[in-house]
Fold:
Amino acid sequence: MTFDLRNTSDADLRFQLALISGELAQRKGGGVVADVLRNIGDHLSGAPRLAAPPVVRDVISAVCSARDVQVAEVLGPKAHRRLAEARWEIWTRLDALRTTQGRPRFSRSQLGAFLNRDHTTVLHGLKRWADLCEVDG
Structure:
């Protein structure tokens, strides 16, 4: 895998670093290097790849604080149950926000981009969170 990082914005560079760290994490012994690269990417610009409005940052911070997880972990590639549940809750809270016309404020693709995920992952997460709340209800 090769990457051309010349003339690359901070957001694109963070994305490339996330790809590299994800590749390394899948290889034996690449965990430490992947963590270092992820940390470099997190500190490059201090901004998410998709510029999140303040309300999104507030929801992410509130959920991460309540669940005692780091924002960087939620934005990262790991799929631990506690991180997945935090993402599900964030997406559910953000999906509940409506415009004055009653439409969702953010598309599922935007919700996914806020946490570096695909829109289909958001759909799955919303369903899982609803199921989890129904069981716990």
